[in-house]
Amino acid sequence: MDLKTLPALTVLSDNVTIVEVDQVKVVRVTHEKATAGIALHGGHVISFKPEGQEDLIWMSEQAIFDGKAALRGGIPVCWPWFGRIAAPAHGFARNSEWTLLEHRENEHGVIIELGLMTSESTFSVWPHQFQAHLLVEISDELKVTLDVINTDEQPWTFSGALHTYLNIADIETVKTTGMGAEYIDSLLDNKVCQGGDELVLTDTIDRVYTKPESVINVADGTRTISVENQGHNSAVLWNPWAAGAESMGDMQDDGYKTFLCVESTLHAPSLEQGKTLQPGERHQLITKISA
């Protein structure tokens, strides 16, 4: 996706403008270190290009920017739950309109802060008071922090993920390391399995790696993308392969060939088994991506 050619709706600074992709407003960042785009719909990073490099983030050519559907690709914010343990799948944050709270910049890069808080629509789905902030730090590397605060008078539980789609050359040549050996396989009825030190894919994958190392490396023969996560208890790796891509209306049939999801995940088998935050407590889920 080329955000450079879009006319600015609002100029906030030399480095930060607001543009529109179909019906979705996007915070466009242009800096000598990197360029990036963050959609206000979903608080969704849709692009991150370090200077002189290809985009590290993959977006579907058929992603629907109607301000209603969740965007296919990028970094969806799955919260206050991850998966299909409640409805809607992956929570409401990725379908909600976030607010641009602040932008800061210097010679090292740009920081964009978005916010989401309790509203009538969120309360109808999840009856709790909260504040969520998304901090997107754009420099030689990309750092995304989901910071959630319990502003309720009661404790609540949650899970979540930063569901990153990494832009790769070819899924069949990618070698992934650092994900750890133990995983829960969603394709085998959540069976706990043991894998090797290196992962090379030949078919669809949907796994929750329960003991990932601090850094997961994805090498595609042209570059190695490093993913460093914090505040997580697992890393999810996902690719739908050919049949899965063909079944999705918002992904081109061969789209699966050029991405691998490596997700910073706070995984829980049910909402009740998620992480509990007491009133006033906060939790940060972080992913840091570089090549």
TrEMBL record:
InterPro entries: Aldose_1/G6P_1-epimerase, G6P_1-epimerase, Gal_mutarotase_sf_dom, GH-type_carb-bd. Its EC number is 5.1.3.15. It comes from the Bacteria. Pfam families: Aldose_epim. It is an enzyme of class 5 (isomerase). SUPFAM superfamilies: Galactose mutarotase-like. Keywords: Isomerase. It catalyses: alpha-D-glucose 6-phosphate = beta-D-glucose 6-phosphate. Belongs to the glucose-6-phosphate 1-epimerase family. PANTHER family: APOSPORY-ASSOCIATED PROTEIN C-RELATED, GLUCOSE-6-PHOSPHATE 1-EPIMERASE. This is Putative glucose-6-phosphate 1-epimerase. It comes from Vibrio variabilis.
